[in-house]
Amino acid sequence: MSHDHETPKSSEPKPAPLHGLLAEYESPWDLIEAAKKVREAGFSRWDTYTPFPVHGIDKAMGIRMTILPWIVLGAGLTGLACGILLQWWTNAVDYPWIVSGKPFWSIPANVPIMFEMTVLFSAITTLVGMLMLNGLPHPSHPLDLKERFARATDDRFFLLVQASDPKFDLKLTRNLLSSTNPAVLDDVNEDRTTSNDLPKLFVYGMVILTAAAAVPFALAFKARFTKSRDTRIHLIGDMDWQPKYKAQRQNPFFADTRAQREDVVGTVAVGEFQDDDAFFKGKQGTAYVRTFPERVQLNDATIDRGQARYGIYCAPCHGLAGDGKGMVNQRAEQLISAGTGKGMAWVQPSNISQDYIKQQPVGQLYETITNGIRNMPAYASQIPPEDRWAIVMYLRALQRKGPAAP
Amino acid sequence: MALLSNITTHNPFTGPPAGDNPFAKITDNVARVAEAARPPRAWYIAFGVAQVFMLMLFGTLGYSVWEGIGVWGNMMPVAWAFPIVNFVFWIGIGHAGTLISAVLFLFRQNWRTSINRFAEAMTIFAVVCAGIFPGVHIGRPWMPYYMFPVPNQMGMWPQFRSPLEWDIFAVSTYATTSILFWYMGMIPDFATFRDRSKSTVRRLAYGIVAMGWRGSSRQWHRYERAYLILAALATPLVLSVHSVVSFDFATAQLPGWHATIFPPYFVAGAIFGGFAMVVTLAVPARQFFGLKRIITIDHLELMNKVLIATGLIVGYAYGMEFFIAWYSGSKYEGFTFINRAFGPYAWAYWTMITCNVISPQLHWFKKIRRNPWATLIIGMIINVGMWFERFVIICTSLARDFLPSSWGYYIPTPIDLMTLAGSFGLFFTLFLLFCRYLPMVAMAEVKAFHPSVLAHGHGDGHDHGHGHEHKAEAHSAS
Questions:
Q1: Which of A234, B158, B347, B378 has its CA 20 to 30 A from that of A252?
Q2: Pick from A59, A25, A55: which is nearest to A40 by CA?
Q3: Considering all CA atoms of chain B, what is the largest pairwise distance in Å, rounded to the nearest integer?
Q4: What backbone torsions phi and psi does residue B274 show, to the nearest 5 degrees?
Q5: Neighbours of A277 (CB within 10 A)
Q6: A44 shares its domain with A148
Q7: What are the residues whose beta carbons fall under 8 Å from the beta carbon of B396, sequence distance 6 or more?
Q8: Which residue(s) pair with B75 in the sheet?
Q9: Whether residue A86 is found in the same domain as residue A182
């Protein structure tokens, strides 16, 4: 456009070839008349240049309707489809989530965005399509060398017939244009003075910008695929680091350096006030109780409950008869007899009808259920105290029944 | 007033424009504003004031982001206050520009050509100001990407069934389309600036944005088609954008909000408020930049007539809201409207009525509507009124809704007020920069619809041999 440090015209070996003939008019109507004549003469490579769109010039020049509206229509429909697809896929398929009971795929609710995307795609396509169809940006043109042509965007109307037109003849075409009474009729030569290369500054600038633009991507790529010992860069803290102490952490403020303070002596959780040792522990002082606590009702209901609970918790190991031959024991013996080495450390669960167990006070039986013994686990967490006493009652009944059949 | 006349007599822009024909005169009248070595003194004064307010805006926004939203007066029950009022206010102003560009174009109102360029510029800058508020008022403004359907590590997507999300798409589309329309309109004028440039920097700068436009008729043909298409797209877009903004409120259950009148009511109000801003800008612009021959008193009169029309629509909407509130029999709805007029916010309500319903009626008088300064003052009054309309709608309905034990009273903090004032600073800064560097008037369009051209353009371009006498006619001076 403006670089001019090629060899000056005076040392050019030959003048630049003719690009075309340029006629200048003072009014748009003169231009229209001229345009009609040029069109009737059958030229095809010619154009008019006006500071504003002249009404009637399209018809005079024979300019056909552009296909831009159809391109925009296509873009609009694409936008519509994208709007539908976006909302359907994200809200109804990929991550459906319930909001106010609205349906996941709700066309009425999706219409506004569908409409907006239609308009958005159409609008962008209108501008970009218009520019592309017009061949814009068009940085340089031989007409730029004609100073008078600057008035094409001001107040004058121009008509250019290109020399490359098949019907172009220097004399005849010049006469034709003269007959339209232009204010000025001039030659336009091809541009052989300004350089065809991009300005160096522009090229360097583009190279540097492109290289600079690649840097963030390169950094991201590196960060994605390499390992580092540094902690992550965490830009937005939100409330991720809160200056507070959690229950199991250290807190140097206290003598015992614990953040959690011990319960006040004698603190009891709600519903956990176990003041009756006989009932809750099966003991009176350090000795086991020999009779059932008062709270335990000595009736059929309790024994039936005990039988049921025994069948759930105790029978798998001790067996329904209390002889220690429950399903677990049978399985263990099966494994041992298979001779694969499994279950070799198995000890048969106690037969509760053995003498030493018959002689244990009920409190001791209760404690065994509560805390476990040897390989038997503690059942305190699974069986409430009332049910443990019911099981003890049922055990006594089993023991009275006599030694189990071998 | 002596100072004012001092400014105008020393102003190099008020003399007659150079040129021996109407087209050259139009070019010179508009281009000399951008080509002058120094802008008019009034520009410096206005720019200085605007800068102060703009810096105040940046300060308050920074402070709000740093400290948190607690620095605003938002408090239950009025959890949505100044930021959303400001957002709706600015978006509404933007709509008038698109209306002038697009809708008046479709209605073949050729008088729009004098004002459409800076009305579109006003739209862009109003949308910029509007867009700040949703961005900042979300509480964690460093996470605005949640609003957009950006694939993320949580696998989450926005809630597309919400009007708040529709707002994102509507306002983004509106901003994009307005910028495209504005830019496209300026391409021929950038070419004019490029061709008149005396310095290489100017020529390059305007040349790049002019895209190499030379006024080829074949290019004009596609350009005109594109202009028509964009106008046809922008018209339903304007209606949809402010309707979607109104849905922010209308889809809620609050009495006073949950009304089907909201979309047309908001759109009419937007056009009303926006036109008021257009006249507020037009009167000083034509005065200080010497555009009185292009933006004539006739143009101001036509704009004031639009103000009467839209003002009446808005007044009708106020009345209809009241009527429907009574007719519906809903005691909540009825109470809301009585509360608006006679409750604790009555001061805001009656300000709104005075400014929006009563003041435009002054334009029934020819003397008033043809007076530039009356136009300016009434325009500013209407702008105030339209801000109060949104304030009344939003804050009174929130302050007193269904349950009296939840009622409250909203008081804005100084930060709220400073942010609102600051947004005007941003708006005027951008607008004054536009006046200084960009083509303020659509020269190509004004020329295309010049009376001398129109006298001939009756669909046929042949046998107008006697057309030359129209050439010398001068445009009506003010």
A1: A234
A2: A59
A3: 82
A4: -65, -45
A5: 14
A6: yes
A7: B256, B336, B339, B340, B343, B345, B348, B349
A8: B78
A9: yes
Give Cα separations from B356 to A358, B307, B375 (angstroms).
Answer: 100, 10, 14
- Do A174 and A295 belong to one domain? no
Question: Chain centroid to CA A179: how far?
Answer: 70
* ipTM, two decimals: 0.91
pTM of the shown model: 0.78
A158 SS3 class: strand
Give the CATH number for residue A364: 1.10.760.10
Per-residue pLDDT tens digits for B195-230 = 999 999 999 999 999 999 999 999 999 999 999 999
Asked whether residue A48 is domain-assigned, the answer is yes
Q: Are residues A391 and A283 in the same domain?
A: yes
- Look up residue A395 and give its two tokens: 């055990």
Structure tokens at A381: 């967490």
- Asked if A321 is an interface residue toward chain B (Cβ–Cβ < 8 A), one would say no
Minimum-distance CB partner of A27 among B211, B215, B467: B467
Instruction: Give me the residue spans of the domains in chain B.
Output: 52-136+250-455
Residues in chain B: 478
**Cα dihedral across residues B283, B289, B292, B298: positive or negative:** negative
- Pick the residue of B148, B208, B214, B251 with the most A CBs within 10 A to test the interface with A by mutation: B214
- A108 is in which domain, residue-wise? 14-189
In a domain, A225, yes or no: no
Question: Which candidate from A47, A51, A126 shows the least CB-CB separation from B230?
Answer: A126
- At residue A117's C-alpha, the angle toward residues A115 and A123, to 5°, is 105
CA separation for the pair B310, B312 (Å, rounded): 5
